[in-house]
Design a protein that fits this description.
Helix content: 25-40%
Structural class: alpha+beta
Oligomer: single chain
CATH class of the largest domain: Mainly Beta
Radius of gyration: 16 Å
CATH architecture of the largest domain: Sandwich
Strand order of the largest sheet: 2-1-9-8-5
Distance between the termini: 36 Å
CATH topology of the largest domain: ATP Synthase, domain 1
Length: 136
């Protein structure tokens, strides 16, 4: 049985990663999902969260926003709104986005505006968490 599988992580602005991967761990809509070569086929929704993938025995981490994953036994494809390495995250900008979203959450908003603000807050908090956890 193969020990690696092809992983493609495609964000709206770039191909984030394309190559062989040994292991992938990502938060799916219904909990953590671990992927290795030979995994059963599946398609699921990805909320904003952290992903980690192993290449040549080394774990790599990224902050990912909403998207989808398709898994086949020999390949996984992630389509996401954004994907950033911890060192690519502008901490000051993420902190400002968090503060803006928190201020907006205190104001009266329509249901749609509320959910959009909540999503923005989740993205900012995720970017801060991943950058502080993994960028040294």
């Amino acid at each position: 049985m193969a020990k690696t599988f092809q992983l493609e992580i495609i964000a709206t602005d770039r191909i984030f990663f394309r190559g062989e991967c040994e292991h992938l761990v990502i938060t799916a809509i219904d909990g953590l999902l671990g992927i290795m070569a030979g995994h059963e086929p599946l398609v699921t929704v990805l909320p904003t969260g952290e992903l980690k993938y192993m290449v040549d025995g080394v774990w790599k981490y990224a902050a990912i926003s909403e998207g989808f994953i398709q898994v086949m036994p020999d390949k996984a494809v992630i389509l996401a709104d954004s994907c950033e390495l911890p060192e690519e995250i502008d901490i000051k900008r993420a902190e400002e986005a968090r503060q803006r979203a928190e201020e907006l959450m205190k104001q009266k908003q329509s249901i749609v505006e509320y959910y959009q603000t909540q999503a923005a807050l989740n993205r900012a908090m995720n970017r801060l968490k991943v950058s502080q956890k993994h960028f040294k």
